[in-house]
Design goal:
By secondary structure, the chain is an alpha+beta fold. The chain is built from eleven helices and seven strands. It has a five-stranded antiparallel beta sheet with strand order 2-1-7-6-5. A hairpin with a 3-residue loop joins strand 6 and strand 7. Helix 2 packs across helix 6 and helix 3 packs across helix 7. The longest helix is centred in the first third of the chain and has 20 residues. The radius of gyration is 17 Å and the shape is globular. The N and C termini lie far apart (about 35 Å). The structure holds 6-diazenyl-5-OXO-L-norleucine.
């Protein structure tokens, strides 16, 4: 399990939950699907979507690229030439995105993030203050990244405040069920299928799912695209969210991680479901929507 955020080491490694929410809102779940854990990096696609809507793709592209890095999620490396972080799914890119939001919303940034993630989940989410404090007081590597970005003029002068928002967004508590509803909102073209609320516009969803497809699993992203073949995002507390576009979201929670920071059982669950039901985007058996219709 992740221990570099000390509070995460207290999780029960045996917790295991799966929730599946279809694009029409139907829900199937098993195990510890209602156990709350911190969202961590799975917040990144959602803040990226917010920044795209707030600033437009061109402005966002000045701050962060869209290339897979092939590096670890916490790598301290920027793109040659532009000095931008490689993509918004790794820590450096996500910090740049949150800082961009902070440059506009200031002290209201975290509330705006919490509000949007809550709309995607269909309920008011809250923060785990212990995990937040644990990361805030030990997150020296992310602090170094924020200052490196400041050095290159990629974040505004309030880098520390923006970083604080980033730590808080990572400490938002979700269950597998919440994550699956958030994912189903993306699968359903930005509209939360449980509440009917339009949370992201359709162009944003296209951009967000593209980045999740190419960069969401860090230095496992290529292999994930090859084996599972759907947009996804993992978090270091053990959450994993996979999206089958226009069909459903699969959310899994199991805290034991592989050496890339992805949930071991989460990967197995998605790999097996994708193989069984032909969910891979390029699988000729990808009849997911009719499959779902046949069981609903
Ligand atoms: O910034 C960090 O290191 C964490 N708050 C989030 C990292 C994370 O979830 C990476 N995921 N596998």
């Amino acid at each position: 399990m992740a221990t570099y955020i000390p509070q995460l080491a207290h999780a029960d490694p045996d917790h295991f939950g799966i929730s599946l929410v279809a694009a029409d809102g139907a829900n199937f779940e098993t195990g510890d699907a209602d156990h709350a854990f911190t969202i961590q990096s799975i917040s990144k696609p959602f803040t990226f979507g917010m920044a795209l809507e707030e600033f437009g793709p061109q402005e966002v592209a000045h701050r962060v690229g869209v290339e897979p890095s092939g590096d670890a999620f916490n790598s301290i490396e920027l793109q040659n030439g532009t000095n931008r972080p490689h993509n918004p799914m790794i820590n450096a890119g996500a910090i740049a995105v949150t800082a961009l939001l902070h440059s506009r919303y200031g002290s209201a940034t975290f509330d705006a993030v919490l509000h949007r993630l809550s709309a995607a989940a269909g309920r008011r989410l809250v923060v785990d203050e212990c995990v937040y404090e644990s990361e805030r007081s030990t997150g020296h590597r992310n602090r170094a990244i924020a200052h490196l970005l400041l050095n290159f003029g990629l974040v505004h002068s309030e880098a520390e405040r923006a970083l604080d928002v980033y730590f808080r967004q990572c400490a938002i508590l979700v269950t597998c069920h919440d994550l699956a509803v958030m994912g189903a909102t993306l699968a359903n073209m930005g509209r939360n299928p449980r509440t009917g609320e339009l949370v992201f516009d359709i162009i944003t969803v296209k951009h967000v799912l593209s980045i999740m497809f190419t960069c969401g699993m860090y230095d496992y992203s290529g292999e994930w695209a090859y084996r599972v073949g759907v947009p996804a995002k993992s978090g270091v507390s053990g959450g994993l969210l996979a999206i089958v576009n226009r069909q459903m979201a699969i959310a899994c929670y199991s805290p034991r991680l592989d050496n890339r920071g992805n949930s071991c059982r989460g990967i197995d669950v998605c790999t097996e479901l994708a193989a069984t039901f032909g969910l891979h985007a390029f699988d000729c058996l990808n009849v997911g929507s009719s499959f779902l219709q046949s069981v609903l």
